[in-house]
Amino acid sequence: MTKTPLADRIRPKTLDEFVGQKHLVGRGGIIKKLIKSDQLPSMIFWGPPGSGKTTLAQVIANTTKSHFSSNSAVSTTLADVRKIVQEAKERLEAYHQKTIFFLDEIHRFNKAQQDAFLPHVEKGTIILIGATTENPSFEVIGPLLSRSRVFVLNQLNLEELKEIVDRGLIELKAKIEPDAFDFVIQASNGDARVSLNAIEIASSLIKTNQKITVQLIKDVFQKQSLLYDRMGDEHYNTISAFIKSMRASDPDAALYYLARMVEAGEDPLFIARRMVIFASEDIGMAQPTALVVANEIFRACDAIGYPECAINLAHGVVYLAKAPKDRSAYNGLRSAQKDVKEHGNLPIPLEILNAPTKLMEELGYGKGYEPYPQNKSLLPKKLKGKKYYLQKKT
Length: 394
Hints:
Blueprint: H1 6-9, H2 22-25, H3 30-36, E1 42-46, H4 53-64, E2 67-72, H5 78-95, E3 99-104, H6 111-115, H7 118-123, E4 127-132, H8 136-139, H9 142-146, E5 148-152, H10 158-172, E6 175-176, H11 178-187, H12 192-204, E7 211-212, H13 214-221, H14 233-247, H15 251-263, H16 268-283, H17 289-304, H18 309-322, H19 328-343, H20 358-362
Parallel strand pairs: 1-4, 1-5, 2-3, 3-4, 6-7
Helix pairs in contact: 10-12, 11-13, 12-13, 14-15, 15-18, 16-17, 16-18, 17-18
């Protein structure tokens, strides 16, 4: 019996076999046109999990007869990038074959790592296809974005999922009850990988000629890492929605995303830790006691644990969502950090330096120091008068 996952065994090899994303690969689709014109640029595929980002990249490589190198930003190093680029250069020179460098989860690469692609993308040594579930405007550096085309992939609809599941059942030589089939489609949340993994696991648990039942499918889905991988996309998507709901002062949405994490068994201390950060980053000076409440929630979760600490989390979430918001302290820190990176360690004014020795006193250390100066800037000379903390107007 093959150990290759079902999703890989039935992965489409041509555009005609590819399911979904008709706006990109259907009749008149932009990617279809780019392939036909042999003018493939580097690309960023932005879309939800299971929408076909990896598959589409492979199909493009097959169609253009390009070498395909598939990598994940989670495990790929700069040394790996250099090796792949060097091989791509040699391949292009020796065989005139292009290389498509597919990088999954490109948003996990930092600025320096993304910078490493720029010269090779510019020269055409590689065609980079980066895949991300995060908004590339925020997660991909500007220079790389300007040298790439961003394509948005949509969540697969029910009909598209049905077609993919049908293919999977044929490959598995498995039969499924109609109610079980419908449950798979609905519970997969538009993610083809989730639906295929579910029927593959279910088919392995039944005897030959037995049908996959709705109860079996429910058992597969219950508390399944298929639905919520703590190291995968859904983990980051959910915590992001959770934070943004509190930021928007929407306690209902925040409670909903909290419930999704709680039901999936997310570490309560991970959730509480993000709430502590949120209390300072987003509420800050508008209600300084929010940090006290968030810290107490964290301690309660640490002491009590599940299932009861979910109540503490809910209490804290509603409090933080309804609290007034003020990012002035956070923004001030980021602005000051920018100046530190730009100017380095500028000389500190002598008047606020201690003078433990006679020589230092003679040199002016501590001279003119006032413990409670009025409207006087104590910043380095180059930054005199600079304002980092811009108090929010009420």
